[in-house]
């Protein structure tokens, strides 16, 4: 069972009691548990290694969790836009040939392969080749847990068995689709793309197949890779390793920490600590935003790794880092969609998003949103603060749901520059990083709807779904058309004769207090925005709870340009349709991702209006969830952003 946390966390406030007292936690050996004699370093630098005491047990239960997610095997999606995305993703997974995916691995291992090579980032001469196989392993495993798809489990098992043959041929635990010479170049600081990034994806995929599919061989192969990574990283001096970390390395630390949590072997965590990039984490530990100029998706996984290290060791320094980073990114570097980055980096300082939009068109790399959702979910487990799910819901509805098409292809960037459009990948010739994280995202859309503690169930997302809490013999069906419906209905389908609490998130965006009807009768139970509506009783089969979640128009402005505003209806960002001017196939894809370019001479309407009285210039349209904006250079049809996939759009408007 989960344990209660020792303290809470208020969004927008300081991240912990210690930091509230103006104390900082520099990531040095001085704070290592059980090592009172460790040298104290005062300048914020890290020692060569962060020692672990053998007596410390690295288990997830070492950290007190406020809430826990239900296993995906206990949650099933019902018809909705979420299920549509899940099924489109499964279609894409089915269209990939395991033998084509294995081709570059077999060739690298000197094994025979007659399969046709794939294109894009999986081409035989691409230095990132093999990374998508790791994502594919994860997607197969997650799909098996989330939908019971045994065919995808079989594919995952087959890939593991064949990868094991490649590993055996390569010797020493090494497994990749490229030679170890890439790592020689990394150590010598010669140009190479990102070899550890690719290795991490494979390791993470093996871990998922082991945990979700019960595949013991996947753990054996993973441990071999971890031993190889330990040997390689241990062979470098500390300065050499820190220099190697200037090259993107994915979530190596996270996977190694998780391997310690799984096996109880602290050696993997010791290896994980070699992947701590001190120049990045130390300013965060000192509550300094030094993110400008960084490649975004190189660094979010490092914070997820820091959060994972906190979970296996209860080392407060790493919790401080994760919480402060989240506040800075979500509070000062995030667009209205919930996404972040421009040209894959943070190009300016905090609260300068309007200025950043002038620097490039390739905003909101989708991998960044995927990883920010992972981090948000971790922080919510520690605290139970439902306001984390205001961000989670925002990003899920406005960034993730709309970035997959009916064929299962996904986006690389989600443009927010006025006049942007959606560009999707191809079936066999893209395999971008965001293709990979997309296959994982849409395979686990049921993983954060419901959470639990000792008292009952938390309902944090309004998604048509079923929950089967087997241990409590409690079954719940959520019946809703949200976000097209401003509310949800919870129906009990099985229950025992003991009290159990239902806690339903009341989003910060609600336009009025929600109303609650229990079995048709109006209830006095209510709660304010940004809190939880709690109902505790002995439930019976057939009990029905109807909850209204009133939506209204509201706007958000750019911190550095108050004329630039985005319009939302409830949690939904509204996009204005701007037509298909200049959209041609050659603009859709580029060698490393879609080439997003501003349309020449595209006139984006501007508005003269009372920005505080949106209902004066934005009126309901002729169809549900559509609006008409007037009072500017032209009228604009607005509707939820996730629906707009076939033309140019604008999310931000100049309002004077």
TL;DR of this structure?
This protein is an alpha+beta fold. It has helices spanning 17-20, 81-94, 98-108, 131-147, 150-170, 181-187, 195-213, 216-234, 238-244, 252-263, 266-273, 278-285, 296-313, 316-332, 353-357, 366-383, 388-400, 433-441, and strands spanning 68-69, 75-77, 450-452, 456-459, 465-469, 474-479, 487-494, 499-506, 516-518, 521-523, 531-538, 544-548, 553-558, 561-569, 572-579, 618-620, 627-629, 636-640, 648-650, 652-654.
Task: Describe, in plain words, how this protein is organized in 3D.
This protein is of the alpha+beta class and 656 residues long. It folds into three domains: 17-67 and 82-441, Glycosyltransferase; 463-548, Immunoglobulin-like (Sandwich), CATH 2.60.40; 553-654, no CATH class. Helix content is 35%, strand content 15%. It contains 18 helices and 20 strands. Strands 13, 14, 15, 16, 17, 18, 19 and 20 form an eight-stranded antiparallel beta sheet that branches. Strands 2-5-6-7-12-9-10 form a seven-stranded antiparallel beta sheet, with no helix packed on it. A hairpin with a 2-residue loop joins strand 9 (516-518) and strand 10. Helix 4 runs parallel beside helix 7. The model is unreliable at 1-56 (pLDDT under 50).
